Structure to design on (79 residues):
């Protein structure tokens, strides 16, 4: 294990469960904002619900069951 990996592991091990959850939440929010920004750059301005479901499709669309549910929601947004 590298020095950086060891330092990271010590920092994570020192966190409380609440701190770990807060960090996970922040990283997830960062990822969602990044995907939303990329979609806006590709598609331009989108209504909030459509953007939300397009982000979900990008994040979870590799799972066939999730993809079907998300596509159904996108179809409702377009209806």
């Amino acid at each position: 294990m590298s020095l950086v990996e060891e330092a990271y592991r010590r920092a994570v091990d020192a966190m409380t469960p609440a701190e770990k959850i807060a960090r996970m939440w922040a990283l997830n929010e960062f990822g969602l904002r990044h995907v939303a920004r990329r979609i806006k750059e590709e598609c331009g301005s989108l209504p909030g619900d459509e953007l939300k479901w397009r982000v979900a499709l990008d994040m979870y669309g590799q799972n066939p069951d999730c993809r079907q549910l998300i596509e159904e929601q996108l179809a409702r947004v377009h209806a």
Remarks:
- The mean pLDDT is 95.
- The longest helix spans residues 17-43.
- Helices lie at 3-14, 17-43, 48-60, 64-78.
- The CA atoms of residues 16 and 22 lie 10 Å apart.
